């Protein structure tokens, strides 16, 4: 980590009642501030040569009026921050608001901007295709669709070689459920508590998080089993998970044997014995839970779970919507870290760097079950989407982004773990590559979730110092760090300094 003096700089100013034109806060110009005299040690943002366009559009006040009057109320409900960020432009790992303030984006539009905002290679591919052909459907044969399907399939192990392209991860998971039921002739599907698999009516049935549950019937036949969370769950220890940082819980396991894994597998067996028929359609699992808060399972848990599912006639489905395309660093796909090969893989988000797209990849035998009727998707895999997604795959390899995810992510987690050891309210640091969670607690002994109010204070403070992160977990107690995979070591150090400052500020407020 960089020495403190090289990461921090100090400013004093008195600009009450006047416009600040020359002061810089976290690498961004201060826009019409009315700040009282103060001295703050604010982490210095890494430099960026890119110059955004000047914003000349609608006022912030008018945008909020439209958001409140013409957008669904849900849009306001999910708006981040008490003082919202009005985004204007992006470049690689950076975002600028309408006032010209720069932010380090460590959330990537919810783990979606995989290779970087407006990445030049991907932008060029989109422009070339837009000049040639915007849209046709797969009732016709066009090159970009087939070039991409072949390229995507080549990045997956045998026998996962058959691709169906969709518009989103929710749609991909919807179709995966239907495909599993068609192929097996069974109906019931098992998911983890805390899981998130989409917002459509059927995929909502797979979700096990009250915040996303409406008081209406969703997909029937979905059963939740205990999530093998080795930090917050009933069982856990200090050697359980495939992460550069382990939990603070003591481990009583014998050498080479995971007691927590065995206990959670016994809970899955109990679910089979009590909650579903003897034959099931599928088991859904994210290799690392996303919305659930970057939750990781004990080593070898998924391997044993897959065996139990297949014994009962079910298909094993890996939801790679957030973990895919090199984000976990060690492998292209999250499931590879678990030593398993699923029957179906679903993906979206980073697949096209933010362009609406999703996919199912499965075996020829399972794919043939779709022929029992006709399913048609107007936009899935259209020429522009296919061209962009193809460029994303190329860019991940050409820019070395999978390795960068591993290197930067491991460094970032290691430094965050030092803050965990420093502060009582940081309970856990976990993840792989650039799929990271920092779970906040009232205290380490109880592991009770930090209150939403205190979480929001830290969240706002981090944003005000120039970094955008996410939140997740069943109780909203986990900060989610899932940036574009082009972030650098300097960016990681900057965030650690910002987070340290924000948590320090929070602790000082608690003392008062």
Automatic annotation (TrEMBL):
Taxonomy, superkingdom: Eukaryota
Repressor listed as a keyword: no
Molecular function GO terms recorded: (R)-3-amino-2-methylpropionate-pyruvate transaminase activity; alanine-glyoxylate transaminase activity; beta-alanine:pyruvate transaminase activity; pyridoxal phosphate binding
SUPFAM superfamilies: PLP-dependent transferases
EC nos: 2.6.1.18, 2.6.1.40, 2.6.1.44
Name of this protein: Alanine--glyoxylate aminotransferase 2, mitochondrial
Native organism taxonomy: Eukaryota, Metazoa, Chordata, Craniata, Vertebrata
Cited function: Multifunctional aminotransferase with a broad substrate specificity. Catalyzes the conversion of glyoxylate to glycine using alanine as the amino donor. Catalyzes metabolism of not L- but the D-isomer of D-beta-aminoisobutyric acid to generate 2-methyl-3-oxopropanoate and alanine. Catalyzes the transfer of the amino group from beta-alanine to pyruvate to yield L-alanine and 3-oxopropanoate. Can metabolize NG-monomethyl-L-arginine (NMMA), asymmetric NG,NG-dimethyl-L-arginine (ADMA) and symmetric NG,N'G-dimethyl-L-arginine (SDMA).
Keywords on record: Aminotransferase, Mitochondrion, Pyridoxal phosphate, Transferase, Transit peptide
Locations listed in the record: Mitochondrion
Pfam families: Aminotran_3
Cofactor: pyridoxal 5'-phosphate
Subunit and partners: Homotetramer.
A GO BP annotation: glyoxylate catabolic process
Similarity comment: Belongs to the class-III pyridoxal-phosphate-dependent aminotransferase family.
Reaction catalysed by this enzyme: (2S)-2-aminobutanoate + glyoxylate = 2-oxobutanoate + glycine; L-ornithine + pyruvate = 5-amino-2-oxopentanoate + L-alanine; glyoxylate + L-alanine = glycine + pyruvate; N(omega),N(omega)-dimethyl-L-arginine + glyoxylate = 5-(3,3-dimethylguanidino)-2-oxopentanoate + glycine
Organism in which the protein naturally occurs: Takifugu bimaculatus
Enzyme class: transferase
